[in-house]
Specification:
heterodimer; A: about 140 residues; 6 helices; B: about 120 residues; mainly alpha; about 80% helix; globular
Chain lengths: ~140, ~120
């Protein structure tokens, strides 16, 4: 019983991390790259200078860290949880994107979009009530 | 039309198949017991010793380029809702490729997520 509860807890924990890290990474990368703008030309010196500007942006680095966090959370949860559980549950990112867009960027969330997010959440809740793992675990290394 | 069908196939089927291959690689290396960030990075690094991981990445890269190609040809309002079919392909792949038990309840959840994603997209202001 405790094993099942632990499995569910750590699955929820890592799903929460990935649905936050993914959209935050996208948002930061988007903000960082928009602030830098497009490359002025394809000349090697201009591209080198552009690359230096991209990699000297703290926002781009934060975005990259968030994306690494997303990747590690996603692949780690898949070591024990079903893909058919994790993949649809990760659709909660749509809700996080809408929240971030609304509260940070001041975007409007239309009633249809809010309804869509509610439908996604109901779907994820139904999936969340199934067992996160339905296959035999492999031996951990 | 044929090229669009091929591109859509690559996005939905090849892309999801790539994720399924990555999942298989993660299952082969076994359940992560240590949840410390450094240990987790080691777990992910170990997965790159498994061939399925590289195959999965190659397929996901192909799907990414197919998405770029599709977006160059068709409206994003047509492309993105169609990509929600990947949840159905994911459930089928989980069942047949990974041997997961996709119950009726999980199927209902998957279909609701598909419908919700389409609504979210069409509800963009």
């Amino acid at each position: 019983m405790k094993v099942a509860a632990d499995l569910r807890f750590k699955t929820y924990l890592f799903l929460s991390m990935l649905v936050v890290f993914g959209p935050v990474g996208d948002l930061l990368m988007s903000k960082g790259m928009r602030a830098i703008g497009t490359a002025p030309s394809w000349a090697p010196a201009a591209l080198l200078h552009y690359g230096f500007r991209v990699f000297s942006s703290p926002i781009v680095w934060l975005g990259t860290l968030a994306m690494i966090g997303f990747f590690i959370s996603y692949t780690t949860v898949l070591t024990w949880a079903d893909y058919s559980y994790v993949q649809p549950a990760s659709a909660l990112t749509y809700g996080v994107v809408a929240l971030l867009g609304h509260y940070i960027l001041g975007e409007t969330v239309t009633p249809l979009r809010a309804f869509g997010i509610a439908v996604v959440c109901i779907g994820v809740m139904i999936i969340g009530n199934t067992s996160p793992r339905t296959t035999e675990p492999a031996d951990a290394h | 039309m044929l090229i669009e069908v091929i591109l859509l196939f690559c996005i939905v089927v090849v892309g999801t198949a790539g994720e399924l291959c990555v999942t298989r690689a993660m299952k082969i290396i076994g359940e992560a017991k240590e949840l410390h960030p450094v240990a987790l990075m080691g777990t992910v690094a170990r997965a790159f010793r498994v061939g399925w991981m590289w195959l999965g990445f190659a397929m996901m890269a192909l799907a990414y380029f197919a998405l770029l190609g599709m977006l160059a040809r068709a409206n994003v309002s047509y492309v993105i809702p169609l990509t929600s079919l990947s949840y159905v392909v994911g459930a089928l792949g989980g069942r047949w490729f990974l041997g997961e038990n996709v119950t009726h309840r999980r199927w209902i959840g998957v279909l609701l997520v598909c419908a919700g994603v389409v609504l979210v997209y069409f509800g963009k202001g």
